[in-house]
Protein backbone atom coordinates (compact mmCIF):
# COMPACT_ATOMS: atom_id res chain seq x y z
CA UNK A 1 0.00 0.00 0.00
CA UNK A 2 0.96 3.63 -0.32
CA UNK A 3 0.58 6.10 2.51
CA UNK A 4 -0.96 8.50 -0.01
CA UNK A 5 -3.97 6.16 -0.07
CA UNK A 6 -4.65 6.82 3.60
CA UNK A 7 -7.92 8.77 3.74
CA UNK A 8 -7.94 12.27 5.18
CA UNK A 9 -10.39 11.06 7.80
CA UNK A 10 -7.40 9.43 9.49
CA UNK A 11 -5.33 12.61 9.58
CA UNK A 12 -5.82 12.95 13.33
CA UNK A 13 -4.22 9.56 13.97
CA UNK A 14 -1.12 9.91 16.11
CA UNK A 15 1.89 8.67 14.20
CA UNK A 16 4.68 9.52 16.64
CA UNK A 17 3.61 9.30 20.28
CA UNK A 18 6.88 10.81 21.49
CA UNK A 19 6.60 14.07 19.54
CA UNK A 20 2.80 14.13 19.16
CA UNK A 21 2.99 14.10 15.37
CA UNK A 22 -0.20 13.26 13.50
CA UNK A 23 -0.47 11.71 10.07
CA UNK A 24 -2.17 14.86 8.80
CA UNK A 25 0.54 17.16 10.10
CA UNK A 26 3.19 15.02 8.41
CA UNK A 27 1.22 14.89 5.18
CA UNK A 28 0.81 18.68 5.09
CA UNK A 29 4.40 19.38 6.08
CA UNK A 30 5.68 17.13 3.28
CA UNK A 31 3.28 18.63 0.75
CA UNK A 32 4.47 22.10 1.62
CA UNK A 33 8.15 21.13 1.81
CA UNK A 34 8.33 22.02 5.50
CA UNK A 35 9.46 18.67 6.91
CA UNK A 36 10.83 18.37 9.55
CA UNK A 37 8.51 20.70 11.38
CA UNK A 38 10.01 22.70 14.24
CA UNK A 39 9.97 20.59 17.39
CA UNK A 40 9.36 17.37 15.45
CA UNK A 41 12.94 16.75 14.36
CA UNK A 42 13.35 13.70 16.57
CA UNK A 43 10.25 11.95 15.31
CA UNK A 44 11.03 8.25 14.94
CA UNK A 45 14.25 8.52 16.93
CA UNK A 46 13.01 8.30 20.51
CA UNK A 47 10.99 5.20 21.32
CA UNK A 48 11.62 4.23 17.65
CA UNK A 49 8.30 2.37 17.52
CA UNK A 50 6.97 4.51 14.67
CA UNK A 51 10.18 4.37 12.67
CA UNK A 52 8.79 1.86 10.17
CA UNK A 53 5.54 3.75 9.59
CA UNK A 54 7.40 7.05 9.44
CA UNK A 55 9.76 5.78 6.75
CA UNK A 56 6.82 4.65 4.61
CA UNK A 57 4.98 7.96 5.08
CA UNK A 58 8.05 10.05 4.31
CA UNK A 59 8.69 8.01 1.18
CA UNK A 60 5.13 8.27 -0.07
CA UNK A 61 4.47 11.84 1.02
CA UNK A 62 7.74 12.94 -0.56
CA UNK A 63 9.31 14.21 2.63
CA UNK A 64 12.92 13.93 3.60
CA UNK A 65 14.19 12.78 6.96
CA UNK A 66 17.10 14.46 8.68
CA UNK A 67 20.14 12.86 10.25
CA UNK B 1 -1.71 23.04 30.47
CA UNK B 2 0.48 21.42 27.84
CA UNK B 3 -2.28 19.63 25.92
CA UNK B 4 -2.77 15.93 25.60
CA UNK B 5 0.01 13.40 25.15
CA UNK B 6 -0.21 9.81 24.03
CA UNK B 7 1.19 6.48 25.14
CA UNK B 8 0.52 3.19 23.43
CA UNK B 9 1.17 0.24 25.70
CA UNK B 10 0.76 -3.37 24.72
CA UNK B 11 0.38 -6.78 26.25
CA UNK B 12 -0.82 -10.26 25.35
CA UNK B 13 -3.92 -11.91 26.72
CA UNK B 14 -4.50 -15.64 26.71
CA UNK B 15 -7.73 -17.56 27.28
CA UNK B 16 -8.32 -18.84 30.78
CA UNK B 17 -6.51 -16.07 32.59
CA UNK B 18 -7.56 -13.33 34.94
CA UNK B 19 -5.80 -10.22 33.73
CA UNK B 20 -6.28 -7.14 35.86
CA UNK B 21 -4.89 -3.88 34.52
CA UNK B 22 -3.98 -0.94 36.70
CA UNK B 23 -4.77 2.07 34.54
CA UNK B 24 -2.60 4.34 36.64
CA UNK B 25 -0.07 3.09 39.12
CA UNK B 26 -1.20 5.18 42.09
CA UNK B 27 1.66 5.64 44.47
CA UNK B 28 -0.42 6.63 47.49
CA UNK B 29 -3.98 6.16 48.67
CA UNK B 30 -4.82 9.84 48.17
CA UNK B 31 -3.71 9.90 44.58
CA UNK B 32 -6.64 10.27 42.25
CA UNK B 33 -5.05 10.74 38.89
CA UNK B 34 -6.90 9.71 35.77
CA UNK B 35 -6.13 9.34 32.12
CA UNK B 36 -8.02 11.51 29.64
CA UNK B 37 -8.99 8.45 27.63
CA UNK B 38 -7.99 4.86 27.02
CA UNK B 39 -8.90 2.94 23.88
CA UNK B 40 -8.37 -0.80 23.72
CA UNK B 41 -7.90 -2.76 20.51
CA UNK B 42 -7.09 -6.46 20.28
CA UNK B 43 -5.67 -8.46 17.38
CA UNK B 44 -5.25 -12.13 16.59
CA UNK B 45 -1.95 -13.62 15.48
CA UNK B 46 -2.54 -12.67 11.86
CA UNK B 47 -3.13 -9.03 12.82
CA UNK B 48 -6.90 -9.08 12.34
CA UNK B 49 -8.80 -6.71 14.59
CA UNK B 50 -10.92 -8.72 17.04
CA UNK B 51 -12.09 -6.20 19.60
CA UNK B 52 -12.27 -2.48 20.33
CA UNK B 53 -13.41 -0.88 23.56
CA UNK B 54 -13.35 2.50 25.23
CA UNK B 55 -12.23 2.08 28.81
CA UNK B 56 -13.78 4.05 31.66
CA UNK B 57 -10.76 5.90 33.00
CA UNK B 58 -12.46 6.59 36.32
CA UNK B 59 -11.86 2.98 37.18
CA UNK B 60 -8.52 2.28 38.78
CA UNK B 61 -8.38 -1.35 37.75
CA UNK B 62 -10.08 -3.05 34.82
CA UNK B 63 -10.36 -6.70 33.92
CA UNK B 64 -8.92 -7.24 30.45
CA UNK B 65 -10.72 -10.55 30.04
CA UNK B 66 -14.00 -8.77 30.71
CA UNK B 67 -13.20 -5.96 28.28
CA UNK B 68 -12.31 -8.45 25.59
CA UNK B 69 -15.78 -9.95 25.70
CA UNK B 70 -16.53 -13.59 24.92
CA UNK B 71 -13.50 -15.72 25.72
CA UNK B 72 -11.12 -15.88 22.79
CA UNK B 73 -9.73 -19.23 21.77
CA UNK B 74 -6.33 -17.81 21.06
CA UNK B 75 -3.77 -15.34 22.31
CA UNK B 76 -4.52 -11.70 21.49
CA UNK B 77 -2.23 -8.72 21.16
CA UNK B 78 -3.89 -5.99 23.24
CA UNK B 79 -3.02 -2.39 22.46
CA UNK B 80 -3.86 0.29 25.01
CA UNK B 81 -3.91 3.80 23.57
CA UNK B 82 -3.81 6.22 26.49
CA UNK B 83 -4.17 9.98 26.24
CA UNK B 84 -3.12 11.97 29.26
CA UNK B 85 -2.29 15.40 30.56
CA UNK B 86 1.50 15.68 30.78
CA UNK B 87 1.12 18.20 33.56
CA UNK B 88 -0.43 15.46 35.70
CA UNK B 89 1.92 12.74 34.47
CA UNK B 90 5.22 14.59 33.97
CA UNK B 91 7.00 11.49 32.75
CA UNK B 92 4.22 9.25 31.48
CA UNK B 93 1.46 7.12 32.97
CA UNK B 94 2.37 3.52 33.63
CA UNK B 95 0.11 0.54 33.41
CA UNK B 96 0.80 -2.50 35.56
CA UNK B 97 -1.09 -5.77 35.53
CA UNK B 98 -1.84 -8.91 37.48
CA UNK B 99 -1.95 -12.10 35.48
CA UNK B 100 -3.25 -15.36 36.84
CA UNK B 101 -4.42 -18.56 35.22
CA UNK B 102 -7.86 -19.41 36.59
CA UNK B 103 -7.69 -22.31 39.01
CA UNK B 104 -3.93 -22.34 39.22
CA UNK B 105 -2.42 -22.75 42.69
CA UNK B 106 0.43 -20.47 41.67
CA UNK B 107 0.40 -16.84 42.75
CA UNK B 108 -0.48 -14.18 40.17
CA UNK B 109 2.29 -12.47 38.26
CA UNK B 110 2.59 -8.70 38.56
CA UNK B 111 4.27 -6.98 35.67
CA UNK B 112 4.85 -3.62 34.01
CA UNK B 113 2.96 -3.33 30.75
CA UNK B 114 5.25 -2.73 27.80
CA UNK B 115 5.17 0.93 26.72
CA UNK B 116 5.68 0.41 23.03
CA UNK B 117 4.90 3.75 21.38
CA UNK B 118 5.63 6.99 23.18
CA UNK B 119 7.81 5.33 25.73
CA UNK B 120 10.37 8.13 25.38
CA UNK B 121 8.56 11.47 25.33
CA UNK B 122 10.56 14.15 23.53
CA UNK B 123 10.45 16.49 26.50
CA UNK B 124 12.41 13.95 28.56
CA UNK B 125 15.30 14.22 26.18
CA UNK B 126 16.30 10.58 26.50
CA UNK B 127 17.85 8.90 23.52
CA UNK B 128 18.77 5.26 23.15
CA UNK B 129 18.28 2.33 20.87
CA UNK B 130 14.96 0.94 22.03
CA UNK B 131 14.72 -1.64 19.30
CA UNK B 132 17.69 -3.67 20.49
CA UNK B 133 16.54 -5.49 23.60
CA UNK B 134 17.67 -8.31 25.81
CA UNK B 135 16.58 -10.47 28.71
CA UNK B 136 18.78 -12.30 31.19
CA UNK B 137 17.30 -15.43 32.75
CA UNK B 138 17.86 -16.26 36.39
CA UNK B 139 19.99 -19.32 37.02
CA UNK B 140 18.32 -20.57 40.15
CA UNK B 141 15.53 -23.09 40.38
CA UNK B 142 14.01 -25.27 37.73
CA UNK B 143 14.32 -23.80 34.26
CA UNK B 144 10.83 -22.97 32.99
CA UNK B 145 9.72 -23.63 29.44
CA UNK B 146 10.60 -20.25 28.01
CA UNK B 147 9.36 -18.33 25.00
CA UNK B 148 9.44 -14.87 23.50
CA UNK B 149 6.21 -13.14 22.53
CA UNK B 150 6.55 -10.56 19.78
CA UNK B 151 3.95 -8.15 18.41
CA UNK B 152 4.14 -5.46 15.78
CA UNK B 153 2.04 -2.42 16.74
CA UNK B 154 2.76 -0.50 13.52
CA UNK B 155 0.06 0.51 11.05
CA UNK B 156 1.83 -0.06 7.75
CA UNK B 157 5.31 -1.43 8.30
CA UNK B 158 6.28 -5.09 8.43
CA UNK B 159 9.07 -5.91 10.86
CA UNK B 160 11.76 -8.51 10.40
CA UNK B 161 12.93 -9.39 13.88
CA UNK B 162 16.14 -11.27 14.65
CA UNK B 163 16.11 -13.33 17.83
CA UNK B 164 19.34 -14.72 19.24
CA UNK B 165 19.16 -17.35 21.97
CA UNK B 166 22.34 -17.57 24.02
CA UNK B 167 23.40 -20.70 25.91
CA UNK B 168 26.43 -21.41 28.05
CA UNK B 169 28.07 -22.67 24.91
CA UNK B 170 26.86 -21.40 21.59
CA UNK B 171 23.79 -19.62 20.35
CA UNK B 172 20.90 -20.11 17.98
CA UNK B 173 19.33 -17.46 15.76
CA UNK B 174 15.75 -17.18 14.61
CA UNK B 175 14.13 -14.70 12.22
CA UNK B 176 10.50 -13.69 12.49
CA UNK B 177 8.58 -11.59 10.00
CA UNK B 178 5.69 -9.66 11.51
CA UNK B 179 3.16 -7.77 9.37
CA UNK B 180 1.37 -4.85 11.07
CA UNK B 181 -0.56 -5.81 14.20
CA UNK B 182 0.46 -9.47 13.91
CA UNK B 183 2.18 -11.40 16.66
CA UNK B 184 4.13 -14.59 17.15
CA UNK B 185 5.65 -16.82 19.80
CA UNK B 186 9.28 -17.83 19.50
CA UNK B 187 10.17 -20.87 21.60
CA UNK B 188 13.38 -20.61 23.60
CA UNK B 189 14.17 -24.29 24.09
CA UNK B 190 17.14 -25.73 25.95
CA UNK B 191 20.26 -26.37 23.91
CA UNK B 192 20.68 -29.73 22.19
CA UNK B 193 23.08 -30.72 24.98
CA UNK B 194 20.46 -29.70 27.56
CA UNK B 195 22.09 -26.37 28.40
CA UNK B 196 19.86 -23.64 29.78
CA UNK B 197 18.95 -20.46 28.01
CA UNK B 198 21.12 -17.72 29.52
CA UNK B 199 19.77 -14.75 27.67
CA UNK B 200 17.83 -13.76 24.60
CA UNK B 201 18.46 -10.78 22.34
CA UNK B 202 15.99 -9.09 20.04
CA UNK B 203 16.92 -6.85 17.13
CA UNK B 204 14.27 -5.22 14.97
CA UNK B 205 14.11 -2.24 12.62
CA UNK B 206 11.87 -0.47 15.11
CA UNK B 207 10.54 -1.09 18.58
CA UNK B 208 8.21 -4.06 18.93
CA UNK B 209 6.01 -5.31 21.74
CA UNK B 210 8.12 -7.97 23.42
CA UNK B 211 7.77 -10.17 26.48
CA UNK B 212 9.49 -13.26 27.74
CA UNK B 213 7.36 -15.98 29.24
CA UNK B 214 8.21 -18.97 31.35
CA UNK B 215 5.83 -21.85 31.94
CA UNK B 216 5.86 -24.72 34.36
CA UNK B 217 6.84 -27.68 32.21
CA UNK B 218 4.21 -29.87 33.87
CA UNK B 219 1.13 -27.68 34.19
CA UNK B 220 1.83 -24.97 31.64
CA UNK B 221 1.16 -22.31 34.29
CA UNK B 222 2.94 -19.04 33.75
CA UNK B 223 5.81 -18.47 36.15
CA UNK B 224 7.38 -15.59 34.21
CA UNK B 225 5.88 -12.76 32.19
CA UNK B 226 8.19 -9.80 31.75
CA UNK B 227 9.12 -7.29 29.06
CA UNK B 228 12.60 -7.17 27.62
CA UNK B 229 15.06 -4.43 28.45
CA UNK B 230 16.95 -2.00 26.26
CA UNK B 231 20.16 -3.51 25.03
CA UNK B 232 22.33 -0.40 24.91
CA UNK B 233 22.36 2.20 27.68
If you had to describe this structure to a student in words, what would you say it looks like?
The complex is a heterodimer of chains A (67) and B (233). Chain A is an alpha+beta fold. Helix content of chain A is 30%, strand content 7%. Chain A has 2 helices and 2 strands. Chain A has helices at 23-31, 51-61; strands at 14-16, 21-22. The radius of gyration of chain A is 11 Å and the shape is globular. Chain B has a 5-stranded antiparallel β-sheet. In chain B, strands 13-12-15-10-18 form a 5-stranded antiparallel β-sheet, with no helix packed on it. In chain B, strands 5-2-7-8 form a 4-stranded antiparallel β-sheet. Chain B contains 1 helix and 18 strands. The longest helix of chain B has 4 residues, at 64-67. Chain B is globular, with a radius of gyration of 18 Å. Chain A binds chain B through residues 1, 3, 13-14, 17-20, 39, 42, 44-53, 55-57, and chain B through 3, 5-8, 115-122, 126-127, 129-131, 153-159, 205-208.
Write a brief structural summary:
The complex is a heterodimer of chains A (67) and B (233). Chain A is of the alpha+beta class.
